[in-house]
């Protein structure tokens, strides 16, 4: 029986991957890496095995990875510590004799320090290179922006104000639903293969926020307009609204990245791998904002 271990199991993507694995193949052979054994409650009905491990604790990772055939490596969420944690995971996987690593990377076009989202993409770039250099069979999933994040970018009062206020210009993003991304990962984990390949886990169409405003107008019957300010003005408005500085910086950086075409990538890889069409953006917006 193939043994699969999922890291980042208590995060949204990790949970969805585990759900897909259990749904499609049962719980036998499926393990979840958890830092805190107290998180056990979240998986009590799943039937999977919980294994303690911490990205910062190399020896715990080696122990957790022993006997594992395929490691589902969900990238770390702690951006300042991410690269070191990723090095720990990959080194531990190699030492423990893991057969294949499936890694959740991130979509990008600009692979230099000039990218607005270099703080995110740099660790992914170096992690991908480590996987290639270390000789472990790997599969890289370059996930685009989660469709699930759009309400955050649109603002909680978008229907009330009738305005999307974001400095993304006419840039587009090939967003995809997190659940569809999880479906890709689960399919690869269960089927095996896909060795030493990289996939673009994006939607089949890319959209600008002007197009999203038009969709919302059609869905709600209200006029929703898109205003793209300068980045400095956007940051000023957010600060005056009491948004924490870290959130201001991240929101502005991703908007700038979209403006510059960083996430303007479409792909048929979700359909090709899972055999199912990804959820369309308008269908998602209708579910969230429809009457």
Q: What does this entry look like structurally?
A:
With 291 residues, this protein is of the alpha/beta class. It has a domain at 4-145 and 175-202 and 266-278: Rossmann fold (3-Layer(aba) Sandwich), CATH 3.40.50.720. It is built from 12 helices and 11 strands. The strands form 3 sheets. It has a 7-stranded parallel β-sheet with strand order 3-2-1-4-5-6-9, sandwiched between helices. It has a two-stranded parallel ribbon with strand order 7-11. Helix 1 links the parallel strand 1 (4-6) and strand 2 (30-34). Helix 1 packs across helix 7 (178-191), helix 8 (209-220) packs across helix 12 and helix 9 runs antiparallel to helix 10 (245-259).
Features:
291 residues; alpha/beta; Rossmann fold; two-stranded parallel sheet; 12 helices
